[in-house]
Amino acid sequence: MRRVQVLALALVSLAGLTGCMVQASRDFSLTVPWQPYERLVIRTHNGRVTLAVADVAEVRVDAQTCVRASDYHQAEGYLNQIEVLARADDKDARTLVVELRVPAALSTLSPGSALSITVPAPCAADIDTSNGAISVADMRSRVAARTSNGAIEIHDVDGTVTATTHNGRIDVHAVRGDVAAKTSNGAVVLRDILGACQVETANGSIEIVSHEGDVHAATSNGAVHVVAAPPDEGAVVARTSNGQIRLVLPRTMTARLSLRAGNGHVNLDTLDVVADIKRREREFVRGTLNGGGAGEILAETTNGSVTVDFR
Q1: Could you tell me the pTM of the whole model?
Q2: C-alpha triplet 227, 231, 236: angle, nearest 5°
Q3: Which of 116, 145, 163, 296 could make an S-S bridge to 235, C-beta 3.0–4.6 Å?
């Protein structure tokens, strides 16, 4: 395995005290020649990841490694055992792998590394971290970002996006492809999406502005606001257990219509559309739009109102 030359080694610093443990960190940078690569894989933990394109000739990795120990000198020795490596993948020369390497003996001492990576050109990206946020800009093909505790922000991607976190907000903007976003605790905002959107959160609001493609949005505690332009026989499905739902949809959709508002009311403006309402009550509306068909418009909340407007 080819090791990459370290360009700059900064001060090893004491970060703080936690009971009888201290945490030390070390800043350094490394560079890798650009092949060019088609895909970038990033693996770290206990640290933030930032990925962007810039006017550079090589791949640049700025890292801050950290570890805990019983005293400062021991922590400094442990830092010498933690590595950040950048190399071509053994099985695919078109893939660059940037990864944190930690000896198993240090795994209980909260080792980690924050990574800020700059590449000369857009590529696909596959990112994994824990206890850290992820920020990605100006990539292409496919971006997959996963963290167990942190926010995710992705924008300007020419391709599909998958964003998953267990505790943090997700923001995805300006994507020319399908988007799937999932968090267990945080709001999700998708704007300027040219593709299908699938969103799930357990505790947070959802806002989606998409210009084409189906939309599926579900939260257990928060409002849902969707402005979408699916195909005429596409689907828009929005569910929440505690919050209002507002949909703004094309008047040309040919779809089944089912709207339910527990402890609230349904607001449906059918003035400019051809609607066949089979059942209409304060909290429930069922029917078809433009004669029905394979499309679906479904909105359900157990505690809030539902509003559907057409444009």
Answers
A1: 0.91
A2: 50
A3: 296
Which domain covers residue 253, as residue numbers?
230-311
Does residue 265 form part of some domain? yes
Residue 134 within any structural domain of the chain: no
Per-residue pLDDT of 272-295, as tens digits, reads 888 899 998 989 999 999 998 899
3-state secondary structure 137-172: EEEEEEEEEEECCCCEEEEEEEEEEEEEECCCCEEE
Query: What's the CA gap between 61 and 304, in Å, rounded?
Result: 48
Q: Is residue 297 part of a domain?
A: yes
How many folded domains does the chain comprise? 1
Q: Which residue has the tokens 């443990």?
A: 21
**Three-point CA angle 16, 127, 140, nearest 5°:** 135
Within 10 Å of residue 7's Cβ, how many Cβ atoms?
12
Q: How far apart (Å, rounded) are the C-alpha atoms in residues 165 and 149?
A: 6
pLDDT at residue 12 is higher than 60: no
- Is position 60 within any domain? no
Q: How far is C-alpha 86 from the geometric centre of its chain's CA atoms? A: 24
Instruction: Supply 15's token pair.
Output: 């970060």
Query: pLDDT tens, 132-150?
Result: 999 999 999 999 999 999 9
For every residue of the chain, DSSP letters joined together read: -PPPPEEEEEEEEEEEEETTEEEEEEEEEEEEE----SEEEEE-SSS-EEEEE-S-SEEEEEEEEEEEESSHHHHHHHHTT-EEEEEE-SS-TTEEEEEEE--GGGTTS--EEEEEEEESS--EEEEEESSS-EEEEEEEEEEEEEESSS-EEEEEEEEEEEEEESSS-EEEEEESS-EEEEESSS-EEEEEEES-EEEEESSS-EEEEEEES-EEEEESSS-EEEE----TT-EEEEEESSS-EEEEE-TT--EEEEEEETTS-EEE--TTS-EEEEEE-SSEEEEEETT--SEEEEEEESSS-EEEEE-
- What's the token pair of residue 149? 């505790």
